[in-house]
Every structure is written in structure tokens, then in C-alpha cells.
Amino acid sequence: MSAIMWCATLVCISALVTCVSTAGILYPRESESREVKSLDGMWNFRLSLPDPLVGFKERWYMKDLSKTGPVLQMPVPSSYNDVMVDKKIRDHVGLVWYDKSFFAPESWRQQGYRVFLRFGSVNYAAQVWVNTHLVLNHEIGHLPFQRDITANLKFGRLNRITVAVDNVLLATTVPQGSLQNISTNTGPKTIQTYTFDFFNYAGIHRSVFLYTTPVVYIDDVDVTTNYTEDSVGLINYKIQYGGSLSSGETLNCSITVLNNENVREKFTVITDDEEGLSGIIKIENAKLWWPYLMHEEPGYMYTLEIRLSTTWNVDDVYRLPVGIRTIKWTNTAFLINNKPAYLRGFGRHEDSDIRGKGMDYALVTRDYDLIKWIGANSYRTSHYPYAEEIMDFADRHGIMIVDECPSVDTDNFSDKLLKKHTTSLAELIKRDKNRPSVIMWSIANEPRSHHKEADSYFKYVVEFVKSKDKTRPVTAALNKWYSIDRAGQHLDIIGFNRYNAWYTLPGHTEIIQSRIEDEAAKWHAKHNKPVFMTEYGADSYAGLHMSPSFVWSEEYQVELMSEHFKAFDTLRTKNFFIGEMIWNFADFKTEQTVTRVGGNKKGVFTRQREPKSSAYHLRKRYWALANQLDGAQLPCNIKSYVIDNDGQNNVEL
């Protein structure tokens, strides 16, 4: 085993020592009882070179990273790969190290606060030290993790966080990859290989927070919603608290409901227990959460103001946004609030220039503005969970989310892989279970589902998801032919990816309509379940125009889309086809290959979020669907002015 592989195994095995926590992972929110301190900004950074184990051998976590050798300043959150112009950093395989110093206010100690350290995401595996003490291990990127570090802090003094990050992917990581040793002019080198088609960005990708709670605190909240025929909204809730009560101490939980203007709503609460930790909230004339363009007021959110009181400790207050809506599915339809919903959206990526997969509010704001401009109502978090801040936008704007775990091109099925796969889903469901925008759980993208082992593997995965949440359907984006696939039988809804006239017979758009109609019908005939298309598309190089259309031109991308639209319209009349999601929202970076010109160019927007011809074409399609299916009013600028059809144009020759 190479040194770098041994190093990766060391970090990952350490991470696995900590099983899925039963504690909650609520997003940090300030309140009367809670303070939130961001640790975002510039951190010290260095690669672990030339020996991948040097940081452990020399115990870099025992002192300031700057005292171990030369360091760089690295922004957090961001991927580290594209921030600098050093190819060695971009292509680094293995460990990197970060550290940052901060003050913990003395007032936190005086008020008896607990202090938690929370990471939104570190890719792929992380070990975290606070003041030389190992406090956290986590494996699997794109998901949050946290720890109570009260006992490790020096209040009123300077503290230090050190993070070791490993980006190595192996046969038992999620997603999977492998290491390859190559010979170079300067000697042997280890490189990372993987089959998925996006760049393996690494680093501290999302915000790092310190947040405080009282000694006894609100640890987790479970919410499900419904409504009655006479417009009474129902919120079933269950609250879990952390910390220990003293002998003789009592606990009480109370809830206030606020509307979207932060005004107290009229409601009643029927509790299931003496403490009020679970029960049902009833809201008369409740406003439902609706998807964008399905209602004049989409994304309506209430707020549950939860107050946990104890005999001798400070009350804890946490405010949870909640949308009231129902999800149902049959063998032919998917329904929101008992109304059939037709998904029109995208596959996407967390990806942008310089930042890589780093969370950026300006980019998120731009993306949602473009999603709404184009008339989409949904997208899939291909191929991993997106930042919680991104999901907040979906809740507020009424964008339906097919929430996908990081399992991509799943192969070489094993018990160890299965454990990590289900761990990723457990952490995802715990994080996103209360979001009204999340309408399905996607358990994989393009798994090698034709293998015999895939049958029992995905049967177990689906059963695991349903043991965590029975209120949402389970899907996957499949690309093996329906006749050999072994995963679809276990799903509630079939999603399939197919690239006719691109990877298959490129240039021949005349094959698309019949092939898509035939395949979708056969998926439904085999499984008697709703079907939607999770990926189709073609690369186009922005600014390349050719007439007649030719592959890679903007005209060809538009032509290919139109042929799919014809198939989708036929399928919509068959009453089992529930949606269309083009690949991709925007161009994105991939590993270096001769089939990719600076990355994958299947976006209808460029990587800089500027529209190609296909964006205007898709906009007309999606708004026409919204108008036809949901009665949405077309925007006045959907078509540019050409001629006044009502006017007379008399010309003398």
C-alpha cells in the first residue's frame, strides 16, 4: 500500500469510529438564548508534502500551523483547488491542513453556555482539533457535523482550531474512486481517478460556526404536516432535548406559531405528553406551501417558535421555518396538496469559478433568480447534498427538490460501502427532513444496477430510507437499460438518464422522439410506477454558431431539446410521466479529458451564469408548461417584439 493510501485509510478509519449520531443537527440560529459566531474568513493552509503523513508525524495540531513551515492564506468557505494559480495545489491528492485562531468570550463561561463547533461540509474526510485536543472525525463530504467543545475551550483567551482534510476517494468511499501510481520525469506520483463527470473539489466548503446553547437545550425537531378539507393546517411535532436535568428539576416546552410576516398566528396545540415535547398544532385558514408558479403565493413559510423551560436553567428558544404541504404518489402520478405536479427543472452542480464548491450567497441568489426567470419549479441536487443555505432559498421560493445523496456510479458493492452509503442518507435525512421543498430522496445517480448484487444492495438502501422517512417517495437516476436494471423494482418513482443523439448517434436528432417515448413507456410497463427524465442534453460551446446545426453548436443544443420536448408532450398524455429535467443548469468543471473543453458544457447557462440560446428556448418551454398546466401568467418579455399583428401595413409598389 502506498503511503498516501495508508494516510487516506488512516483518516477514514478514524472517521468511522464515530457512528451516526443520534443527536440533532439543527442549523445554527441566533435567538434570545443562543449566540452564533462565524469562523468564516482567511485560514492558514498548507499541503502535506512531500510525506503525506508528515503532519501526523510532526504533530502539526500541537502548535500554530505557521510554526510548522510556510503557510498560505485560504478563504473559508471555498474549495482550495482553484483559488491559487499553483497547479500543485489544484491537483493535490491527499491531506491538507488548515488552522484558525479565535477568541471565546468570557461571558459565555459566566453564563454557563454550552459551545458547539459546527462545520457545514468538509470534503472528503476531516479530523478536527481544538487547542490540541482531537474533538471531531467525519467522513463523507457535503454534510454537516458538530461537537460540544465547551470543555476544550479557553474562555476569555485565544483558541485554535486545526483541521486535517483528506480528498482521497477509494472503492469504499461515497462517492467511489481509486488511486493510481504513475511514473513521471521526477519519479513516481500518485494520482486520483474516478468515473463521475465532475471535478473532485476539496476543502472546507461551507461555513464554520461556533454557537451557544443553555445547559438544557433544544437538540432536534421532527415535523410532518397535513391539512383538513376545511383549511385547518396540521403540524405534528416532536422535540428532542439535550443536556441533563438536575434531581427534582422539571421541564416544559411551549410553541408559538408566527406567519411569514413574523406575526403571531392563531393556533391551538394538543400535546401528547405532560412536558409538551410532542403534539399537534392546528392553524385555521392555513396557507399551504406551494411550488413556484403553481400558486400566486408560492413557498409560504410559518415559523415555529419553540421555547424549552426548566426549573433552574435559562430557557432555550429555537425558531424553525415550516411549510404546510402534503405529498402523495400513485402508480401514475405525483401530487402536491392533492394536485398533480409536473416537474420542470434541471440537474445542477455546486460549481463556480475560483470558489469551486464553496458556498457563496451572491452566486446562490443569482442561481435562484435564473431558475425563476426560466420558469423552472424543481431541480435535483446532483450528485450530493447542497448547502443548507441553498436549501433555505428553495423553501422560501417554492422550488421542489429531489434530494440526492453522494452515491455516484455506485459499483463494487460491499458491506462496507453499504454502511457508508446508508450513513450518508441517514445524515441527509436528519438534516433535511423538515424542509417542505424536499419532495423525494434520490439514493444514487447512474449506479451499476445491472449487476446481480445491485438487487439486494438497493433493496436494503430503500428499506433503510423508508425506516427514516415514509412521507416522501424514493427515487434514483438510472441509466442501465430497463431490461437489465435491478434497482428500479425497489423505487417508488423511476428516474432515468439518456443521451440520445449525443453519446448515442451524435448528430442524429431524428432518433430522439421515438426512443424516449419507447423507453419511458417500458420503464412504466415493467414497474407500474411514475416515470420522469432526470437527465438529457448536449454540450454547446457558448458563441459557436453553425447552420445547419452541428454538434457542440448552440443551434444543435436547441434542436436536440426540441426533439425531447416532442417526446415529453406525447408522454404527458400517457398519464404516467411526471417531469423533465435537463442536464445541466450551468456549465461546470470536470477532470481533465480530451472529451471536455474546460469542463462539461451541457449547461443552458455558462459557468459564469450567462444564458446560451438554449436558455431562452427552455424558458419558452417551461413558462408554456406553467401556463398550460397551472394557469401561470406568461411574462411580458417571453418573446421579443417583431410585428403588430393587429395593425395594417399598406405598401405601394
From TrEMBL:
UniProt-listed InterPro entries: Beta-gal/glucu_dom_sf, Galactose-bd-like_sf, GH, Glyco_hydro_2, Glyco_hydro_2_AS, Glyco_hydro_2_cat, Glyco_hydro_2_CS, Glyco_hydro_2_N
Biological process, per Gene Ontology: carbohydrate metabolic process; glucuronoside catabolic process
Domain Glycoside hydrolase family 2 immunoglobulin-like beta-sandwich positions: 216-325
Catalytic activity: a beta-D-glucuronoside + H2O = D-glucuronate + an alcohol
All copies of domain Glycoside hydrolase family 2 catalytic, residue ranges: 330-626
Entry keyword annotation includes Calcium: no
Family assignment from sequence similarity: Belongs to the glycosyl hydrolase 2 family.
Keywords: Glycoprotein, Glycosidase, Hydrolase, Lysosome, Signal
Signal sequence coordinates: 1-22
UniProt keyword annotation of Methyltransferase present: no
Protein name per Swiss-Prot or TrEMBL: Beta-glucuronidase
Residue ranges of domain Glycosyl hydrolases family 2 sugar binding in the record: 36-214
Pfam families registered for this protein in UniProt: Glyco_hydro_2 (PF00703), Glyco_hydro_2_C (PF02836), Glyco_hydro_2_N (PF02837)
GO CC, alphabetical: extracellular space; lysosome
Single GO MF annotation: beta-glucuronidase activity
Known regulation of activity: Inhibited by L-aspartic acid.
EC code(s) of this entry: 3.2.1.31
Subunit (UniProt): Homotetramer.
SUPFAM superfamilies: (Trans)glycosidases, beta-Galactosidase/glucuronidase domain, Galactose-binding domain-like
Function: Plays an important role in the degradation of dermatan and keratan sulfates.
Subcellular compartments: Lysosome
Predominant subcellular localization, coarse grouping: other
